[in-house]
Design goal:
heterodimer; A: mainly beta; seven-stranded mixed β-sheet; four-stranded antiparallel β-sheet; B: six-stranded mixed β-sheet; globular
Chain lengths: ~110, ~110
């Protein structure tokens, strides 16, 4: 089944404790992206990747890191999480930048 | 900078009736894409419909259709024969170099 998977689905952590949210797609998509969703703000792009080893900042990259060592994986790293990073995070992928994006199920992150 | 505006935070419609959700956007580009995504309570983001700006014909997917007015920068979604399963947040999105999202419209279906 074609899908985008994210793990974990729920995470409660404390300020400053490094964490990684994994994202994997099995559709051989070139383009992958991370978004955060906050009430009343829609989705905002954190980082995106056009292909392996090619990543770029979105609208709200501060406090996040990403890597794209393999085509299928695009992990989101929070080196030192803070409470303002409490949010719902989505990973998405598409064949290219201009194609339909397929979304993962979301990761609910709470930083205390 | 491109922006997407959904002016209706919440809409309600009687089951089996028709409802239209509004979306306007601001861009200086001539080539872009527009989308409507649906987010039900499960939080999954689901593509409803897609429109290429160079196409004059309005996109249609079963009960879902759009009214794309390029000059007015308007992209409304019409849902016909509303069903209980249509209840969700609906997001309008603009794509050129990146996907820009509206704040969403919550659609309530009254049985």
């Amino acid at each position: 089944e074609a899908q985008v998977t994210q793990n974990p689905r729920y995470l409660i952590t404390v300020t400053g404790k490094k964490l990684t949210v994994t994202c994997s797609q099995n559709m051989n998509h070139e383009y992958m992206s991370w978004y955060r969703q906050d009430p009343g703000l829609g989705l905002r792009q954190i980082y995106y990747s056009m292909n392996v080893e090619v990543t770029d900042k979105g609208d709200v990259p501060e406090g996040y890191k990403v890597s794209r060592k393999e085509k299928r994986n695009f992990p989101l790293i929070l080196e030192s999480p803070s409470p303002n990073q409490t949010s719902l995070y989505f990973c998405a992928s598409s064949l290219t930048r201009v194609n339909e994006q397929f979304f993962g199920p979301g990761t609910r992150l709470t930083v205390l | 900078a491109q922006t997407v505006t959904q002016s209706q935070p919440e809409m309600s419609v009687q089951e089996a009736e028709t409802v239209t959700l509004s979306c306007t956007y601001d861009t200086s580009e001539s080539d872009y894409y527009l989308f409507w995504y649906k987010q039900p309570p499960s939080r999954q983001m689901i593509l409803v419909i897609r429109q290429e700006a160079y196409k004059q014909q309005n996109a249609t997917e079963n009960r879902f259709s759009v009214n794309f007015q390029k000059a007015a920068k308007s992209f409304s979604l019409k849902i016909s024969d509303s069903q209980l399963g249509d209840a969700a947040m609906y997001f309008c999105a603009y794509l050129n170099y990146q996907l820009i999202w509206g704040a969403g419209t919550k659609l309530i279906i009254k049985p």
